[in-house]
Amino acid sequence: MALPRSRYVKEGEEGVFHCYSRCVRRAFLCGYDAATGRDFSHRKKWIEDRLRFLASIFAIDVCAYAIMENHPHTVLRTRPDILASWSNHDVAARWLRLFPQKRNTAPLEQQIQRLAELTERISVLRKRLCSVSWFMAQLNEFIARKANKEDNVKGRFWESRFKCQVLLDEAATASCMVYVDLNPIRAGLASTPENSDFTSIQERIRAWRKKIVESSPDTDTAKSTQPLQQAFAADIPPQCQKGTGLATPEMVPATDFSPGSQSHTDSWLCPIQSDARRRGILQMSETEYFALLDRSGRMIRADKPGFIDASLEPILHRIGAIPEAWNQTVSHFGSAFRLAAGKLSRMREFADRVEKTWFTGLSAARSAFT
């Protein structure tokens, strides 16, 4: 029997969630559909643009996403702390941007003021603007209506309500983000992360590269750098390369990666590491995440699966993952965990909270996370 979502997605509580939806009958309605011979790849851009728009409205961080040919993945974090800082005027303005009284028209100040004065209504809207269910509804319904209009049909576009996994700790969040970002590579749609279209990793690499070009390190800094690995060489600007190595945290002044400083990703995505303006999702720098993802991708494609490079261990130990199991964790995250993912102790706490004695993923948690 399915567990009601209200039992584990709590209003007013911060949480991180892996959400995904599949097209009806798993048809390739966001890519090339062999059944109809039509190419719907342009719809991936619709989904990406809609995610960007919703991230500017809701008190929800988009931490990762990957838009596949028949299903999109997202990793979302609710932010009730941000919601609490919004005035009634802020809530009204955001809601009227989401639901304008006249289509394709920005709300007027008098319309915002009129709604802001309705205290009870604002209280309801405030909760909705921090709701994963409302976020996903405004994503999926918008795409379904637009696609059905394009096809001149009625009926379902998505096969069911979106699926939702709770990510209980940083280890689960990091492994799920890597799993999501590597989806196009695993599906054979891309050969490298930087060429993975319609993914958060591509968005982050592009923003990171732009930032590096705009603030390239001085000569002394460049001379003192030492690359950690080969990765993303083709996508890293020449002034950040040494041979064919990855541009690493040492290639950028250390203050750029410390908490409270500006992140390399000045984009709509939640930053990997906290900066002066926004709280990050992981306790690692952006380039450490790039390195983690690149090596994870190489391991998944290697002839000897299970080989773990020693340079992965410091990051994995820090987030509470078991290095020897990392390849298996990020390769089979979607099937290993269902309702929730995290360290075994957190999984047991979650089971007690939702009053269940067992659910899929407990054995995976025991082998994947410390």
Structure description:
There is one protein chain. The chain is α+β, with helices and mostly antiparallel strands. It has two domains: 5-86 and 129-165, 2-Layer Sandwich (Alpha-Beta Plaits); 189-330, no CATH class. It is 42% helix and 8% strand. The protein contains 16 helices and seven strands. It has helices at 42-55, 80-84, 88-98, 109-116, 119-128, 132-151, 170-181, 183-186, 200-214, 219-223, 286-301, 313-319, 326-331, 333-336, 344-353, 362-368; strands at residues 16-20, 32-33, 38-39, 60-67, 72-78, 163-167, 340-341.
Helical amount among residues, as a percent range? 40-55%
* Rg from alpha-carbon coordinates: 21 Å
Largest sheet, in brief, is:
5 strands, mixed
Strand order of the largest sheet: 4-5-1-6-7
Low-confidence stretches: 219-265, 304-308
First-to-last CA distance:
30 Å
Proportion in β-strands: 5-15%
What would you call the structural class?
alpha+beta
Number of strands: 7
Please tell me what the overall shape is: globular
> What is the overall number of helices?
16
Order of helices and strands: EEEHEEHHHHHEHHHHHHHHEHH
The number of domains is: 2
Mean of residue pLDDT values: 81
